[in-house]
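Input.
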Amino acid sequence: MASPQFPEPPAGIEPSTEDAMDRALQKLSANKGRWVGLNLSERISLLEKLKDRTLEQAERWVELTCQAQGQSTQDGGAGGPWLGGPVTTMRNISLLIDTLKSGGQPKPPRMESGPGGRTIAHVYPQTLLDRILMPGILGEVWLQAGQPATQGRFYREGGEGAVALVLGAGNVNSIGPMDVLYKLYAEGEVCILKMNPVNEYIGPIIEKAFKPLIDEGFLAIVYGGADVGRYLTSHPLVETLHITGSDQTHDAIIWGDGAERERNKSAGEPQCSKPITSELGCVTPVIIVPGHWSNKELDYQARQIAGQVFNNGSFNCNAAKVLVTSSKWAQREEFLDRLRAIFKSAEPHKAYYPGAQQRYDAFMDQYPQAEVLGGDGEQVVPWTLIPNVPPETGEYALTHEAFCGLLCETTLPEGDPADFLRSSTTFCNESVWGNLSCSIVIDPRQQKKYRHALEEAVTGLRYGGVAVNVWPGMIYGLVTTTWGAYPDNPLDDIRSGKGVVHNSYLFDHPEKSVVRGPFVMSPPAVWAAGHRSAHQVGEKLTAFEHSKSIWKIPGLAISALKG
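Output.
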C-alpha cells in the first residue's frame, strides 16, 4: 500500500514466460542480419516514426512516473520525470537522425589538439538554436591519446549482427530506451530489453513509442525479476549484454554469487564470457574551489547543488554525494548553512527505490554527526547532511554509494586554489569509489586566475564525465557527449562500468566528456532546488526536440524565467 501522502503506484506487470522470451529471441535472431542490411534511409524512417510516437506518449509517460515516484504532475517536481524521460529520449532520437543523415560520421563543430596527445571534439553547441537555448553551455568529447579520431565504426565496416540483452535501470526512465537506441544504431545489434521491476510500468509506454522497431523484429520488451534476468543472460541466443545498475549485479552475472564469485575472480574464470558493457554508478564528488563569492553566488550554488541531491529523490548515479571543500575556505560554513536551509525547506520525496531506508540507516550508524534536515514520514528518507567526513582511503561515505537523500562533506587542508585543485584531483581519483562522473565548482575570478590548474584537474580526473559549474546530469542529457565510466576498468574491478552510450557523434575511442557552464545561470538551471516551472520547461523541451524551431524559443524562455 502507498503512504497516505503519496498516490498509489501503478499496477505491476506479470513476468514474461520462458516460452514468450524464447519466441521473442528467435524473432530477433532471425532479423539481426536484416537489421544490419538496412540502408540509411530505412533506418531514418524508423527513427522518424519513433519520434512522432514518443511525442504522443510523452504526457502519459510523465503521469505514470509521477504516480510511481509520489510527485504531482502540476508543479516543478514533475520537471525531473520530464527531463529524465521524454526530453532526453526525444533528443537522442533526433540527434541519431542527424547522425544518419551524415552517413554515420557527422562532423563536429570543431576539433582541436588536447593535452597529452588527446584530440578534443567540441560537440555543443552545434547550432545557433543551441546557443540561444542554453547560452554558455559547452560540451566536449575527449578522445583517447594515441587513438585515431574515427567515428561510426559500424557504418564504416558493417557487421554480422547480434542479439543484445539490455538490462534496464529502475531509476531514470530514459535509460532503457536510450541504451536500446545505442545498441541498435551505434553498434548494429538488435535488442531484447528487460524492464527493471522498479519501473516496469513504463514498459508499455516504450512498447507503444518504439512499436515500429518491435513490429519489424528488431526489438522486444520483456518483464520480470532476477530469475528472468538469469534466464536471459544464459540464453544461447543472447550474444552480448548491456547493464545499467550496480556493480554487485554486474559481478553476479559475470562471476557468480557469494563464495563462487570470489573463487572465479581469483582464478580469472568468469562464469559468463559474453561481451558486456555497463554503467554501474558512482559516489559522485563535487569539488568546490575556494573563492570569494557574493551572496547571490552563494545562494545560486546552494540551490544548484541541492538540486543535484533532490532530483529523482537522489536515486541517480550522478547525484551529488560528496562535497569536497577546503578547510581554509572562509565561506565554507556560510555555504553549508545555505544548504541546510534549503534541505529544511524542501518537500520530501518518496523513497521509491528499494533498499533506500537500509542504505540510509547504514550511513546514520556510521556518522553520529549526521544532520537530519528534511521532513520524515512513511516512505520518506529525510534530506540529510553529513559534514566533516574524514578524507581517508576506505572511509565508508567515500566507498559506498548512498542512493538516497544524503549529502556528505569532507575537507582537504589546502587553501590555495591551485594546490586545492591538485589535491582534490588525487583525492577523488584514489579515495572516492567509482569513475563515472564528477564536478568542479569554481567562480569566474578563480577560473581566470587559475586556468592552468583548472585544466590540469579536468585532464587529470579519471572520470568518464567531468562537469564544470553544472550538474553531471548535463553530460547525460546533452547526448552529443558520451555517457559512461572512464575507460579500461577490468572485469574483476569494474567500478563504474565499461563502454559508453549516447555519443551521437559515434566516436570510436572516447576517454571522457567535459561540459562547462556559467558559474551563475540566468534563468536558473532547470535542476536547481525549488525551480517552480521545471515541468513546463520539460514539456516544451520535448516538443522542441521533436521539431526544432526558433519560434518555440520564446515559450521556453518564458517558462524558464519562472524558475
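The mean pLDDT is 96.
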